[in-house]
Design goal:
mainly alpha
Length: 94
């Protein structure tokens, strides 16, 4: 297999090899492809989880387990979301 790289990417690969982190350009490219594959797998897992959550909501709606979206409920949802976001980032909720 032959690949073509931009001048910038060629230099990047060469710099990685010269740094001693990798023994060859092929090793750099393989590592890049492993990382791309890992990124795709994470994306696909997140997408599948989202689909499961959507289906859960649809199933709950089909069973009549829903609430009307009032201003009060919307504010509660936003407040819980802000709290979760703050907990992840280590900040106090706004």
């Amino acid at each position: 297999m032959n690949i073509s790289l931009t001048t910038e990417l060629e230099k990047y690969v060469a710099d990685k090899v010269e740094s001693g982190m990798y023994h060859s350009a092929s090793e750099v490219i393989r590592e890049g492809l492993r990382l791309l594959k890992e990124k795709d797998e994470i994306h696909n897992r997140k997408l599948e989880e989202l689909r499961r959550e959507i289906q859960l909501g649809i199933d709950q709606a089909d069973r009549g387990q829903v609430k009307p979206l009032t201003d009060e409920l919307a504010e509660d949802i936003k407040a819980r979301g802000r709290k979760r976001l703050a907990a992840r980032s280590g900040q106090a909720p706004a």
